[in-house]
Amino acid sequence: MILFKKEKDVIEQVVRHAEKVEECLETAIKTIEAYLNGNKDEAKQLAKKTDQVETEADMIRHNIKDILYSGAYMPLIREDIYRLVQSIDMVANSAEKCCDFFLNQRPEVTPDLTPHFLKAVRESLGIGRLLRDAVMCYLKGECPVEVSRHHSREIGEKESDVDTIEWDLTKLIFTSERDFAQKVHLRRCLTRIVEVSDLAEDAADQLDLVILKSMI
After folding, report:
1. What per-residue confidence (pLDDT) applies to 146?
2. Of 15, 69, 118, 165, which sits with the fewest C-beta atoms within 10 Å of its C-beta?
3. How far apart are the first and last CA of the chain?
4. For position 56, what pLDDT does the model report?
5. pTM, full prediction
6. Domain containing residue 106: CATH number
7. What is 50-87 written as a DSSP string?
8. Alpha-carbon distance 49 to 96, whole Å?
9. Residue 120 near residue 162 (C-beta atoms within 8 A)
C-alpha cells in the first residue's frame, strides 16, 4: 500500500511537471512574440516569468527524484520514468534559453522575416500541449496505450513540420542581401527555436520506452 501511494504521488507530480512545462513554453511564445513585434519591455517581463516557471518545473523534477529514490516503482522502470521527466524538463530548459537568446543577443529580425520567425516559434514551442497530452493520457490511465502512442506520433509529425519551416527559412535567410554575419546570427537564432521541438520528440521517444516496459 505504501508503494502504491508513492507511485500515485509520482504520477501526480509528473502530470504537474508536464503542465508546468507547457506553461513555460506558452509564456516563452508570448515573450518572443513581444520581442518580434517590437515590444522589448514587455518581452523582458515575460522572459522573467518564463525563467520563474522553468524554475518551478525544476523543483517538481527534484521532488519526483526524491520520491523515486524512496522506492516508488520497480527498479526496471524507475530509471526510465526519471529519464522521461528529465527529457521533458529539457524542453522547458530549451524554451528558456531561446528567450535568453532573443533578450541577450538581440537578433535583428527585419519585417520581411518576422512572420516566418513567428511561425517557427509558434510551431516549435507550441508542441508543449501535445507533450502534456501524451504524458497525461498514459500516466493517468485515461486512454488506451495506442492512444498514448498516437499522441507521441503526433509530436514526431509536428517536429517534421518544424523541420520544413526551418529549411525554408534558412534558405530565405541565406539567399537575402544581408551581410554574412547577420545571416549566421539569424540562423543561430532559428537553431535555438527549433531545438525545442527536437527535444520534445526525444521526450516522446522516452515516453514510448516507458510504455513499452510497462507492458512487459
Report:
1. 74
2. 69
3. 22
4. 96
5. 0.91
6. 1.20.58.220
7. HHHHHHHHHHHHHHHHHHHHTT-S-HHHHHHHHHHHHH
8. 10
9. yes
